[in-house]
């Protein structure tokens, strides 16, 4: 049942940056003995097995605003500053062991104190070296009074040496340390540290290559800077960015197999969820791990996220299962069998039909993930394995508590939870040793009212994770040129199913399937555009056009898809990109790819095929998905059936692999170019060559200067509506007689689709579509042609030389006209005593949609073979319009092209 907190009384924590929902905080304190409840074992004797194990943890005031309202934290805002956190160390995991402040020594001096003489900094994300000798964590210095936000301290990574009791910032240089926010540190096996950072080291270098200023790109919700994973060597301060997601990558840890597991915020297009991924320490081998279709596993199928992952002793991944926002600062603990599952109900391909559930709770009773609902099991803030062979956890746990009608705090019971006279009390987190096997627990740090214990870790010697060396198997020459490689075995492979009509071998045979009959002709590679904040440049919502769902996009180029559906090509490294399948005319024929891919310099990324958005079958993870439907060449030294003899195979090769081995790797081309390189002309005629080249456009080509050089990784296609699309409507398309003067026809778009005819007389635009020049009266930031194409409108008619919206009578459900009435329901009559009919405008549907060219049939149909406008736009122009629609029909695709006031 839903509960609300009681009114606040006496706690206040200020200086926070930004929070979500706010609930009132209970003001009443109560001794732990009076509370009761819980998951068992609160009065057990100390366990001698764990008594000598040191622990570290963060202690902070319970979070409230200046009005004592309990704050709601948002997992999508990990940089929020919550002053008052302090890191403590206990030499024993025992309630009687003294705690020692080990973080405040970083801020010795009166200059760190606020006006009330308080030292209010913040600590989070604690990790321990594999030998238990060092602690690494993120810490942010106190607020600088009267300083602007951009002058405030950033989150930094700090390291504490237990033996020497010394504390040092990992990045010694103030300038380097303050160049970005650094959180979520974790030790790699070789002593380096992986962490999440807004410094975006390699991404900012790419910005310079693109002729843009360096800046911290925002998340795709455009509120806070995005965090990418970086690796630092403390000995050299060398920092390398290893992930390139456009929203934040968070909470990395190193699994025993040496891979980095982390939570990724997938926030592209209609996707908005936090899932588990893994990557090698050098950034190669990025792959999806778990969670995309498992977010309905919260209480009552509530949407939950997979946060704070850590590996258990049995190899499963433990996560905190909770919604984005939480005012109770906790959720449920679940263990995920990532070795054998990609979703909670989806085993890997090898385990299909054998296993049923990859996600299991670690508590005997259900823990609510609903922020407004409590259960008898209480709630967990964090957990860390004891690493002593027992499977036990060091947990931050709050029992379930309620406030009765007398304003007294009482423990939860089933009856009280169902009684509206009882309201939720503030959480009371302490630290406990929790045994998931039997649900018992032992107290380690007794909870205290208005105090929150978080990020508890165990300083236990453990097996060091496997070491994965950097650069293993990379192509150095390709990497030096700024490229990696993508190899897709077949785009016709959808979740392990051959989607070709007669099989991929028939599709690959030019005698059985001509080039024109192959639906997949080219692969378009689309790049994310980094979005700056308002301090860099003002990017209003109108800059994105009819929909901001795709933000801004650039096109890296096109590459032919080989007859068997395979493709192997060089792609710029260290950028976030997505791919689309394109037909012969340049229209996207596949759904939009809704998560970002990446390759590191010199890396080859292997893909089996494609995946539909709603399918839960394993994908994006080698070894977990179905084998490829494209088995490749049947022999060595022979061509594929009916193909050119020069393209001889090695057994098992795809056509793309064969082509690359003999002719060299394909590189992306900003133009669509086709030459039939596969058909054996001695057996059947080759298909006709064609190209859609930007050089053939009469107007400005949407390509950067780098595209003039072959194989330049900095080449970009940047399409802005005003510069590249709108001029098409005014391009002279007159058809002249043989004398070169007499106009036989005028197919110029805005001649018919304009407000005046050739004699400058007012006209109703053809098809109610005005493609004339000038700003829109509906939105001055847009040309009216853009609004006419992409927004619904009202039909117009010409009355006495004036264009007005056409009005038609409103009819009731029985088809009778509706008349105007007054407040009493009586008819309103005109001067002649007649009732006044209610009228309305006639809607004109938009002819284009940001969903893409294939969905914009109303616009393209007249230009098809046999259409009323056949041949009026040439194939290059239609291809330009198609690709612009396919990437989102944005008004601008470069934030620095947006005019500033």
Automatic annotation (TrEMBL):
<dbReference type="Pfam" id="PF18582">
    <property type="entry name" value="HZS_alpha"/>
</dbReference>
<dbReference type="InterPro" id="IPR011659">
    <property type="entry name" value="WD40"/>
</dbReference>
<keyword id="KW-0732">Signal</keyword>
<dbReference type="Pfam" id="PF07676">
    <property type="entry name" value="PD40"/>
</dbReference>
<dbReference type="InterPro" id="IPR040698">
    <property type="entry name" value="HZS_alpha_mid"/>
</dbReference>
<feature type="signal peptide">
    <location>
        <begin position="1"/>
        <end position="33"/>
    </location>
</feature>
<dbReference type="InterPro" id="IPR011042">
    <property type="entry name" value="6-blade_b-propeller_TolB-like"/>
</dbReference>
<feature type="domain" description="Hydrazine synthase alpha subunit middle">
    <location>
        <begin position="549"/>
        <end position="611"/>
    </location>
</feature>
<protein>
    <recommendedName>
        <fullName>Hydrazine synthase alpha subunit middle domain-containing protein</fullName>
    </recommendedName>
</protein>
């Amino acid at each position: 049942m839903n509960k609300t907190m009681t009114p606040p009384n006496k706690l206040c924590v200020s200086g926070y940056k930004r929070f979500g929902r706010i609930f009132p905080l209970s003001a009443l304190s109560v001794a732990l003995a009076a509370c009761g409840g819980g998951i068992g074992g609160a009065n057990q004797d100390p366990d001698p097995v764990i008594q000598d194990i040191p622990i570290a943890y963060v202690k902070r005031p319970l979070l409230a605003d200046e009005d004592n309202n309990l704050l709601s934290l948002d997992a999508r805002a990990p940089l929020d500053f919550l002053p008052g956190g302090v890191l403590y160390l206990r030499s024993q995991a025992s309630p009687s062991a003294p705690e020692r402040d080990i973080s405040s020594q970083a801020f010795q001096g009166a200059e760190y104190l606020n006006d009330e003489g308080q030292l209010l900094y913040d600590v989070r994300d604690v990790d321990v070296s594999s030998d238990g000798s060092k602690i690494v964590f993120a810490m942010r210095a106190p607020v600088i009074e009267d300083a602007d936000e951009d002058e405030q301290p950033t989150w930094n990574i700090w390291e504490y040496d237990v033996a020497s009791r010394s504390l040092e910032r990992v990045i010694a240089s103030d300038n380097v340390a303050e160049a970005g926010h650094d959180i979520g540190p974790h030790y790699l096996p070789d002593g380096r540290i992986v962490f999440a950072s807004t410094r975006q080291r390699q991404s900012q270098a790419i910005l310079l290559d693109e002729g843009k200023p360096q800046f911290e790109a925002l998340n795709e919700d455009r509120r806070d800077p995005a965090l990418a994973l970086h690796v630092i060597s403390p000995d050299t301060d060398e920092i390398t960015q290893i992930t390139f997601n456009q929203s934040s990558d968070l909470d990395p840890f190193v699994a025993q197999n040496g891979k980095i597991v982390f939570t990724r915020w997938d926030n592209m297009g209609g996707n908005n969820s936090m899932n588990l991924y893994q990557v090698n320490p050098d950034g190669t081998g990025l792959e999806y791990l778990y969670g995309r279709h498992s977010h309905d596993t919260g209480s009552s199928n509530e949407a939950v996220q997979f946060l704070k992952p850590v590996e258990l002793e049995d190899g499963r991944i433990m996560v905190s299962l909770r919604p984005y926002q939480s005012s109770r600062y906790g959720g449920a603990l679940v263990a995920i069998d990532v070795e054998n599952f990609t979703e909670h109900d989806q085993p890997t391909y090898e385990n299909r039909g054998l296993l049923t559930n990859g996600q299991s709770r670690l508590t005997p009773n259900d823990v609510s993930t609903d922020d407004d609902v409590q259960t008898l099991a209480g709630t967990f803030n964090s957990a860390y394995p004891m690493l002593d062979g027992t499977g036990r956890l060091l947990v931050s746990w709050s029992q379930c508590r309620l406030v009765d009608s007398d304003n007294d705090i009482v423990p939860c019971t089933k009856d009280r939870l169902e009684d509206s006279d009882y309201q939720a009390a503030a959480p009371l987190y302490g630290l406990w040793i929790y045994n998931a096997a039997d649900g018992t627990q032992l107290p380690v740090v007794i909870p205290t009212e208005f105090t929150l214990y978080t990020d508890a870790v165990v300083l236990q010697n453990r097996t060091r994770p496997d070491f994965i060396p950097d650069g293993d198997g990379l192509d150095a020459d390709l990497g030096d040129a700024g490229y990696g490689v993508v190899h897709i075995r077949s785009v016709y492979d959808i979740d392990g199913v051959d989607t070709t009509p007669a099989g991929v071998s028939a599709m690959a045979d030019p005698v059985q399937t001509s080039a024109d009959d192959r639906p997949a002709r080219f692969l378009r590679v689309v790049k994310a555009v980094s979005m700056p904040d308002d301090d860099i440049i003002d990017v209003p919502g109108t800059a994105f056009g009819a929909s901001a769902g795709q933000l801004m996009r650039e096109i890296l180029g096109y590459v032919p898809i080989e007859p068997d559906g395979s493709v192997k090509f060089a792609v710029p490294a260290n950028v976030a990109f997505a791919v689309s399948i394109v037909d012969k005319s340049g229209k996207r024929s596949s759904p939009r790819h809704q998560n970002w891919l990446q390759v590191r310099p010199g890396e080859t990324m292997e893909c089996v095929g494609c995946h539909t958005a709603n399918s839960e079958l394993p994908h994006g993870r080698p070894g977990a998905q179905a084998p490829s439907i494209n088995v490749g060449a049947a022999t060595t030294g022979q061509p594929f059936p009916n193909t050119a003899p020069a393209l001889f195979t090695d057994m098992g090769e795809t056509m793309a692999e064969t082509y690359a081995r003999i002719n060299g790797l394909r590189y992306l081309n900003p133009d669509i170019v086709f030459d039939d390189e596969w058909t054996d002309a001695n057996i059947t005629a080759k298909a006709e060559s064609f190209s859609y080249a930007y050089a053939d456009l009469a107007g400005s080509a949407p390509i950067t200067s780098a595209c003039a050089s072959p194989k330049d990784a900095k080449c970009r296609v940047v399409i802005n509506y005003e510069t590249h699309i709108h001029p098409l409507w005014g391009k002279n398309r007159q058809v002249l007689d043989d004398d070169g003067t007499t106009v036989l026809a005028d197919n110029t778009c805005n001649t018919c689709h304009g407000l005046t005819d050739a004699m400058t007389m007012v006209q109703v635009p053809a098809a109610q579509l005005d493609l004339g020049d000038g700003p829109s009266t509906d939105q001055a930031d847009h040309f009216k042609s853009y609004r006419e194409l992409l927004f619904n409108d009202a039909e117009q008619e010409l009355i006495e030389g004036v264009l007005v919206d056409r009005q038609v009578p409103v009819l009731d459900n029985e088809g009778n006209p509706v008349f105007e009435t007054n407040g009493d329901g009586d008819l309103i009559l005109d001067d002649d005593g007649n009732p006044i009919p209610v009228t309305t405008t006639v809607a004109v549907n938009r002819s284009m949609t940001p969903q893409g060219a294939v969905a914009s049939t109303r616009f393209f149909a007249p230009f098809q073979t046999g259409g009323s406008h056949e041949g009026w736009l040439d194939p290059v122009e239609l291809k330009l319009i198609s690709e612009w629609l396919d990437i989102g029909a944005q008004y601008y695709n470069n934030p620095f092209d947006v005019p500033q006031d």
